[in-house]
Amino acid sequence: MERSHYWLAVLIIALVSGCATSPTGRSQLMLISPETAISESEKAYIHTVSTLGQENKLVSDPAINQRVQVITGRLVNVAIQRYPRTRNWKWSVAVIDDAETVNAWAMAGGRMAVYTGLLEQLKLTDAELAQIMGHEIAHALANHTAEQMSVALATQLGVTAVGIATEASDKTLTVGAIAAQLAVQLPNSRTAEAEADRIGIELAARAGYDPQAAVTLWQKMAKAGGDGPPQFLSTHPAPGNRQATLAALVPKMRQLRPATLGPVAPVTLAR
């Protein structure tokens, strides 16, 4: 069979069978299974963290690390309660020492990272940081890595990129791991962003954080970046009326908020 016909057949079969439903009820294209995305993301994450460690780019300040770890742990506790399938995920977070980068990301399976530039440039409150990490956890819960890898495969946009990356990258990374790595570097869809906003603000509220922080966070984000937008917005494009949408959710989210901050689930700090 000719190569083009082979891929056409693969895509037709996959398009017929490769559908899933997100936590908000949205239909998703899933040519890459969530399990595969988690496995490949683990390889990419370990490689990334190892490289950052060798370059002394992982934060050593215990106060910063503990702050991120505790806030993330509260959110993970809620995530596990509401999505029991995530109980055995290897939840982890890397705090990257890069004051110039205003960004955070998550891979499939609960592998996350946040840059010090996000904390320092935006002067985040704990509640605002909870919104960021809740948003990232939401990407993992909604299988957005697998979805993004699937869309890239379906459109063949990712095939060339992965091929080029394979030629130039460390050979210890598989093509799948490179694809998982690319998934956090390429822009999410606005639909996925809106979904992560909706899930993330609820996670933060149920963990005990003021949902109004979702609004103030994006007010700060809009002002940040100087001559250009923060890097966060290059991979997390803002849905239209983001602040207004989040503000409309605040009253409902406040009803879900407990009187005290919630318990902290174990989250491994990448070192």
Strand-and-helix sequence, N→C?
Answer: HEEHHEEEHHHHHHHHHE
Q: Mean of residue pLDDT?
A: 83
Total helices: the number is 12
> What distance lies between the first and last C-alpha atoms, to the nearest angstrom?
48 Å
Largest sheet: 4 strands, mixed
Indicate the low-confidence ranges by residue numbers: 1-17, 157-162
Approximate strand percentage: 5-15%
Count of strand segments: 6
Radius of gyration: 18 Å
Percentage of residues assigned to helices: 55-70%
Number of domains: 1
Query: Which sequence of strands runs across the widest sheet?
Result: 4-5-3-6
How would the global form be characterised? globular
Counting helices, strands and paired strands, the structural category is alpha/beta
Keywords:
single chain; two-stranded antiparallel ribbon; 8% strand; 59% helix; alpha/beta; globular; 4-stranded mixed β-sheet; 12 helices
Would you write up a description of this structure?
The protein has 271 residues and is of the alpha/beta class. The chain has one domain. Helices cover 59% and strands 8% of the residues. It has helices at 3-17, 34-54, 62-82, 116-121, 126-141, 144-155, 157-168, 175-185, 190-206, 213-223, 232-235, 242-256; strands spanning 19-21, 27-29, 92-96, 104-107, 111-115, 268-269. It has a four-stranded mixed beta sheet with strand order 4-5-3-6, sandwiched between helices. A two-stranded antiparallel sheet has the order 1-2. Helix 5 (126-141) crosses helix 10, helix 9 (190-206) packs parallel to helix 12 (242-256) and helix 10 (213-223) runs antiparallel to helix 12 (242-256). The longest helix has 21 residues, at 34-54. The relative contact order is 0.16.
